[in-house]
Every structure is written in C-alpha cells, then in structure tokens.
Amino acid sequence: MSQNDINPFSAIAHLERINQCIQCGTCSGSCPLADLMDHAPRELFALLREGAYDEVLHSNTPWFCVSCYACMVRCPREIPVTDLMYAFKEVITQQGTAPKNHKMPDMYQAFSRSIKDTGKITESLVMARYGMKHPVDALKNIPLAVKMLMRGRLELKAQKVAAPKAIARLFALTEIPQDKP
Amino acid sequence: MKICFYPGCSFATSAGYRESTEAVCRKLDIELSQIPDWNCCGATVMFGENKLRATALAARHFALVQTMGFEELVTGCNACYATLRKAARLLAADEELFRKTRGVLQNLGLELDRIPKIRHLLEVLVEAMPDSASDKYKTLAVGAYYGCQLTRPDEELDKGEHPQILEHFLSRIGFSVKEHSASTRCCGASHAVIYKNECQELSTRIIREIENKGAQVIATICPLCQFNLDQAQSQNNGPGLPVTYFTQLAGLALGLAPAELGLNKLLISADKVLTRP
After folding, report:
1. A176 touches chain B (CB under 8 A)
2. Per-window interface: A 114-173 vs B, CB < 8 A
3. Which residue has the higher pLDDT, B169 or A157?
4. ipTM
5. Contact B166, B219 (CB under 8 A)
6. What is the set of domains in chain A, with CATH numbers?
7. pTM, two decimal places
8. B15 to A112: CB separation less than 8 angstroms, yes or no
9. Considering A140, A150, B10, B97, which has the largest number of Cβ atoms within 10 A of its Cβ?
10. Which of B122, B144, B168 is the last residue of a domain?
11. Model confidence at A179, in pLDDT bands (50, 70, 90)?
C-alpha cells in the first residue's frame, strides 16, 4: 500500500461531516481570504473526499483561515468548517508538511513558543522571534512599533505567569508522541 | 458587584482598554477580581497545534475560577472569548477530552469539576450602565464594530452576522448610532499583521463603509480589531476615523475625562471629534 492510501486526517473528530458537503461553495464565497488560498474550503473538502491527501497536507488553505467563522454560520449543512481547518493544521503540523513559503506557521510557532516560555504573549517579543525568520517584515514594522511605543502601547519586557514551570509542565504533559518510522 | 475577570495578553498594552475598563467599573461599583496568575488562552494558534494542549491552557482558568468561587468568567477580548468558549464547548461535548484535560490539570494541582459561563465585558456593561441623562454626545455619530468572534460561531449572544447589542447599548447611553453593513466583517485579525498588504483591503472596506454611513467614530470591543483598524488608517490616507473601545465611550457617557480613559493612546486622535462644539 502506498502512503497515499492512508488518510492522515482520519482521526479528526467529525471528519465524516464533510461527506454531507453539497459543494455549494458558500464557505469559499464567505471567506475573507479565499483569494489567497490554493484550494478554497469547498475545493479542499472535495479533494479530501477524493483521497487526494497529499494535496490537502500541502495546501495553504488552513494557514489562511483567519478564524472569522463566517463559513461556519453560513454552511447550509452545518459543517464545522473553521473547526476542521484547526484540526487540519494540527495534523499538518504533526506531519511536518506545512507549506515552506507560508508565513503563518512561523508566526504560530513564535506565538506558541512564547506561551511555553513565559505562559503569556508579549506582542513585541513574538514579533521579534518571528522576525528572526522574516527580517524584512520585522524591519518594515519598525515605524509602527515606534508609534506604538510613543503611546505606551508597546511592552518590551516579557509578561510572565508567576509559575512558568506549571505551563512548561502543561506543555510536557500534552506532548503528542511522535512515532518515527 | 464583583466579577471574575480574565484580561488576556493584549489588555494592558491596548489603546486605553485597560484604563477605560477600570475607570468605568470603578464608577459603576463593579469590582474586577482578576484571575491570579492567568496564562495566555492560546488564541487562534493553539487549537491548530494541539487540541488537548489548547483545551488545557484554556481550562486551567476554569479550574482557577472554581477555586475563586465564581460561576462566570468575563473577558474583554474577542479572541479570548471565542477560545475559552470553544474549550468549554468541547469539554461539555467530549467526555474523553474532559477526562484527559482534568488529568493534566490535576497534575498541576488543580481541580476541574465545572465549566464556568464565559461572558464578554460588553454584556456586563449592557446590564450595568444607566440610561443616558445628558445630551452631550447625542450628535456624535458612532459606527459599531464587533469583529468576528463575539457572535460567531455559536450565535448565542446575538445574531452571527447582524447583531444589535452594541448599537442598542451605544444609543441607550447617549450616542447617535449609524447603521452600516460592515459590523461583523473580518478585519484580518493576526493575518493582517503578517500579510499586511494582502489584508489591507479588509480593513479599508470596513472603514470606508462606516465613514460612508456618516459615522465620526468607530466603537470596537476587541484589542486586535482596534489595532487593525487604527493602524491601517495611520499608515495610509484613510478617512481618519478614531477607533475607540466601547468602554471609552461608556466612560465619556458617565462624565469621565478623556485622559482617564486612555484616549490619548489612539493612533488616530479622537480629540477633534470630542471637543467640537
């Protein structure tokens, strides 16, 4: 059996709901960032139903999902589209197939790392960490950062939970075991 | 009245959300009991990385709320609100997830027996604010902007795409409200920070629509919405509509001074519209 025959998304809760999709495209038409997606949600569901798992694993669609939930409240079949996008990202992250040229995985990693280290987010530090991989973006944001700083809206010191060890422990306890081939 | 408050990571550095919330609550005799040692809720990031971790990060607060003896948890950030509610929704529907989450929290010395009701600060002020007793702001035209994650996905508080709770509130406390069609259109959220150019038209569309319907000020209820609409205008030739928090307008309605409400922190200044004759 080739690897493509195994559905890597099969463990997702309520994945079977996509079989109720009538391909009306309301989700894609409601999506604020559909123009940037390689396969807007309707098409992504069609690909998944056809078993084009590789295509879905490498798609940029879940990474452009901005979590506005417009598709989810409009879907005539009440498919939890946004929830599924989150679940796709979880699988894609585990499989390591996030599109290399997409900036959101780096942003999310910087964000998650900040929670792991300090329990909280400090926007300037998340952007600094993200900026190490995307220095041009970081430089472009400097004028805005200065304006924010002048108005007392930029914290440069990390906000921290009192017990960072508890959060680090929470991360350790929820680690997903990696089964290496 | 005492409420259990979850500020979230953006509260302290937002454009006066903290100042105005604290000032308004003081005036209304609402005591904000902040959850001690709160952590980031995980926002729109964690559920895309690890469902159990995302649920546990949010549910850690449910256990802390329980310890504090509260039944409700209030937050002023739409992303926190939606994330905490998502965790609550999943925990109520999925026994195995509840059991695992509970196990993780027990390991941290916390007990999770019940899930608090998650509410937005807007709901609290809707209940606590008195009707307007003055005409001072009756000609100040305000456009309400909800963003996405207050009424979507569950539509419990109000309609998902055409809510009215904020409009009713603003008009009851003495402002002139301008109806428009962009009140729940997406501003691009965190994508607007990273994919700035690509998301520019999302905020432009919202700001233009609110301006075209005659509003002079925008009222927001979420730190990221406020930031996106404020910064988009500060970098381009936008119409220059000040983007305030509903708590700042509530403060003005209560007779508090702009300086107490952190209005000096907006990138697009509100001085002109507030001091006009």
Report:
1. yes
2. 114-115, 119-123, 127, 130, 137, 140, 144, 147-148, 151-155, 159, 161-163, 166-167, 169-171, 173
3. B169
4. 0.94
5. yes
6. 3-95 (1.10.1060.10), 104-173 (no CATH)
7. 0.96
8. no
9. B10
10. B122
11. low
